[in-house]
Design a protein that fits this description.
By secondary structure, the chain is of the alpha+beta class. It has 11 helices and 6 strands.
């Protein structure tokens, strides 16, 4: 494993530094979730219940005109038609496997550590340093980028987080999130409000959340706090949202194809951030 990856990140997204202050202890968001067709295997955790996730982002300041929705298929037009459009972000949940870790390290190895900051960034990316917070990181990456970012109410927790995070480098952003009581409290509330009993904050949860968003420059970005930085997966057309054919091919389908080719675990689930149906 490359020095810049292996020494920094453990399988649960915890970055350890000797001088770091004590981090928030995030309880994993945990529940079973129906799989995306055509695969038939279930992910037993985490809590990616769209209703729970929607309540959480609304509490933090995202407009009630947006909500998370189940995505039951990547290919069936009838099932895809249940998802309101446009889709501003997708959140993919999957088990961390040896094949995934191998591919992650190989891709990240030659890449420089992302160190950008400021209003000129195409996306807002935050490095994950809090144990078991990958669900919250995924939600933040979905809500704080693309079209959803324009639908955050001013002077709310999300708006304040963005205002504080934009001028900071990724390490400082991570520290900002580590010490944010409002984000931790909202996360704890969501973890206790799901369909099943949440694991402890110190539990080993080998599942991960990755967000896909479309930038104002029409690029599809993969946002994962365990990586060296945000990953530009390719160009989208003006009319494409992140559930469009091209976006799926560049993002979620590409991810699953790689897992299949490497003999990995094809259990996964998917939710979309899109207009509310209320």
């Amino acid at each position: 494993m490359a020095e810049s990856i292996g020494s920094m990140h453990d399988p649960h997204g915890v970055t350890e530094t000797s001088a770091a202050p004590r981090k928030q202890a995030f309880v994993p968001l945990g529940k079973h979730y129906p799989p995306v067709a055509p695969y038939s295997r279930l992910i037993p955790n985490p809590e990616n219940n769209p209703e729970v996730m929607t309540r959480l982002v609304h509490k933090l300041g995202l407009s009630p005109t947006l909500a998370f929705h189940d995505v039951y298929s990547l290919d069936d037009p009838d099932l895809l038609a249940f998802v309101p459009r446009p889709v501003h972000a997708l959140l993919l949940v999957f088990p961390i496997t040896s094949s995934y870790e191998k591919a992650r390290v190989e891709e990240d190895g030659p890449l420089p550590e992302y160190d950008a900051s400021g209003s000129g960034e195409e996306v807002l990316w935050i490095r994950q340093t809090i144990r078991n917070a990958c669900g919250m990181m995924g939600l933040l990456h979905c809500a704080c980028n693309g079209g959803a970012r324009e639908m955050i109410a001013p002077q709310t927790d999300l708006a304040n987080l963005i205002d504080s995070a934009v001028p900071l480098d990724p390490s400082s952003r991570a520290q900002l999130l580590e010490t944010s009581p409002s984000i931790a409290q909202a996360h704890a509330s969501a973890a206790s409000g799901g369909d099943t009993t949440a694991p402890s904050a110190e539990a080993d949860v080998d599942l991960h959340f990755v967000a896909f968003v479309k930038s104002a420059e029409n690029n599809l970005w993969e946002l994962d706090g365990r990586r060296k930085g945000p990953l530009n997966r390719g160009k989208l057309a003006d009319e494409d949202d992140v559930l469009a054919e091209n976006a799926l091919n560049l993002g979620v389908r590409r991810f699953l194809k790689r897992e299949e080719e490497l003999g990995g675990d094809l259990r996964f689930s998917l939710v979309a951030l899109a207009p509310s149906m209320d």
